[in-house]
Write a structure and sequence with these properties.
This protein is an alpha/beta fold. The chain folds into two domains: 113 residues, Rossmann fold, CATH 3.40.50; 138 residues, Sandwich (Tumour Suppressor Smad4). The chain starts with a strand and ends in an 8-residue tail after the last helix. 41% of the residues are buried. The model has no long low-confidence stretch (mean pLDDT 93).
Length: 291
């Protein structure tokens, strides 16, 4: 696929990111692309003549957005870019790189593959959380990885009830609950003991955080379910809902949190040789073939 307008997003104050961003500018200029630069990285680029815009405008106008950094930068950009019909690819300048899978040393070859259509494209769904207080919606935000109900204080238990599609599931005393997408199943959910979900699964994983009972276990549910969390009025203040650990919504005792699929989807572009199991094996240090 030939992209005419390409947006650049990246990690700031990072030498590796700066090198990759300038290498991308060179590659894109050779293809006569219109290059849009997110405002935060304009100082990282050698060419100061490039058009600078906000992330929202970049999503509106770009056919392809290239994110240079780690998964955190990708998550921050993805929540905005998913609102637009924008393909997204990541260059890994972070640690794990589950979502940013282009090797910085291989930018030229991979950009060539992308512009010649030798890629693997896939859609990932997002979640959205709405806080309801006294029957009125207070705030709504989205997440690519996970939405987490938790106490604002470390190692502080809270009480809540869980409903799925209006059906009561359980009440619980714990540090909170992680509701993760397949994309997020290798993030916070995994560290909490949750299962790894294949990206194409239309499912969610619900992972209790340090529950006050040994019988509480992660649950996998249909992604089209509505998750409803009712926070007990006996809780103290300083309760929160976090979206991808980036956005924090404050809660009060008695509030409700409704979690459902976001109508928008994130379109990721991977190298043609992308293999999810290779990613898992590499990032999680799984064993290689015996023979």
């Amino acid at each position: 696929m030939s992209y005419q307008t390409v947006g650049l997003i990246g990690k700031t104050d990072h030498e590796g990111s700066r090198v990759s961003l300038n290498a991308l500018v060179t590659e894109l200029k050779e293809r006569n692309c219109q290059i849009l630069v997110e405002a935060r990285i304009k100082e990282e680029l050698d060419d100061r003549s490039l058009e600078v815009c906000s992330l929202e405008e970049l999503g509106e106008r770009s056919e392809l957005a290239i994110v240079v950094g780690g998964d955190g930068y990708m998550l921050g950009a993805a929540r905005i870019l998913a609102n637009h019909n924008t393909d997204v690819v990541g260059v890994n300048r972070g640690n794990l790189g589950f979502l940013t899978d282009i090797n910085p040393e291989d930018i030229s070859r991979q950009i060539t593959n992308i512009f010649e259509g030798r890629v693997h494209r896939e859609e990932r769904f997002l979640l959205e959380a709405t806080v309801v207080r006294d029957g009125e919606n207070q705030e709504t935000n989205s997440a690519v990885n996970e939405i987490v109900l938790h106490h604002g204080k470390v190692a502080h238990m809270m009480e809540f009830e869980l409903y799925i599609d209006g059906l009561f599931v359980f009440s619980q005393r714990s540090d909170g609950l992680i509701v993760a997408t397949p994309t997020g199943s290798t993030a916070y959910s995994l560290s909490g003991g949750g299962p790894i979900l294949m990206p194409q699964l239309d499912a969610l994983t619900l992972v209790p955080m340090f529950p006050h009972t040994l019988s509480s276990r992660p649950i996998v549910v249909d992604a089209n379910s509505e998750i409803y969390l009712k926070v007990s009025k006996v809780n103290t203040d300083n309760l929160q809902v976090s979206c991808d650990s980036h956005i924090v919504i404050s809660l009060q005792p008695g509030d409700e949190v409704r979690i459902r699929k976001n109508p928008n989807k994130l379109t990721l572009v991977h190298p043609k040789d992308y293999n999810y199991f290779n990613v898992l094996r590499t990032k999680l240090n799984w064993g290689s073939k015996l023979y």
